[in-house]
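This is your field. Please look over both lines of this record.
***
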Amino acid sequence: MKITSVLRYFTLILLLSAGLNLHSQTVYQPDWKSLDSRPAPQWFTDAKFGIFIHWGLYSVPAWATNSNADGFGSNYAEWYWERLNNKNLKIHKEFVDFHKKNYGPNFSYQDFVSGFKAELFDPQQWAKIFKDAGAKYVVLTSKHHDGFALWPSREAWNWNAMDVGPRRDLAGDLSKAVKASGLHMGFYYSLYEWYNPLYQQDVHKYVDEHMLPQMKDLVNRYQPDIFWPDGEWSQSDTTWKSKEFISWLFNESPVKDRVVVNDRWGTKDRIHGTFTTTEYGQGNASLNKPWEECRGIGESFGYNRNENLEQYLSSGALINLLVDVVSRGGNLLLNIGPAADGTIPVIMQQRLKDMGDWLTINGEAIYGTTAWKEAPVKKDIPVYYTRKGNDLYVISTKWQPAIAVPGIKKGKVTMLGYKGAVKHQQKGNVISITAPALTPADNPNSYAWVYKITGAF
């Protein structure tokens, strides 16, 4: 066979192979059955721990009431503008009184842009704090319900961080730093905007001319691995054209093979998307679909100067929360609220550092694990379980002299971070673990202790 013939032959084979690969790629149709059939990318189900960031103009007043008179979410500082205008709320007067006292009756919410300078914002420092905390992904509020964008959005002309305020591409700078540190980057995006005139006058025109182009710009510009919508409750998924957007995201966007989306798309049941979300313990988690719990270290997402120490979860409580969520098959998206100058409050940094120190020792019991569906029902004993392959992790969030693990007929027991032997006894299908006599010198941590049963399955 001549060389030219050989080349033609292999060229034909390559073309046929490429054609078969293209043909075999799934095309997701703009309907929920098709979109929900897309498997969750493995990186997300393995990650387990992410950092949520609420940062914007609301970080300037950085205030919310502590009365919680109107129930869930009434003390969210990022809702400052809406609370000032919502006369139906009991807390409305508290916000108005605070605003008039500190800024005067003629000071508008838009005027806060002069105080949103981000002059101390160091994206590399932020990324290091997140990585040292043991987080695997980051989700930034690219635009909250006030419509102010943290990137140079054409649709938010003169109402974005490049045109006014910091005069900087905050989203782009952080995205670059987070990705360079090896973490996955994502964006929160509010579908609706409280006081956008176009949204109030013609929602369909708002969707077509403002929202959809803005979302696609965010995706094309920064190529995030997570797209996290919110504010979906005011319209249906049909009005938002949610299915059409997700179809584009999964089929044509530059992140189609790795992006994940939550369930906040305007549907009544909120079961669609890559994963379901719960907030401050609201809603139900399911082992049949990836899910994520989100909450702040304190009681507000946006930075609230009015919060006190007792409103912040301790490091131990946060580690316990992570363990509980992961043991039930979920991810924890833990929120921080930076200040308007771009600094992360030290108390938040301290909590994240403690979590990172714990995960440095015990991370193998968290990352890449699954829930142990046969785990015994907990009563008053704070013991949790995760599984990875043939190994079982037994996590005690309170020191226990002994732990009995039913349903296990074999396995070698060790404690993560402890070099000594761990006594255990096998009797039937129960392994009884005796806690080692730890000293301050060899105690691996002070929050939660992890026993690894190697070869349990």
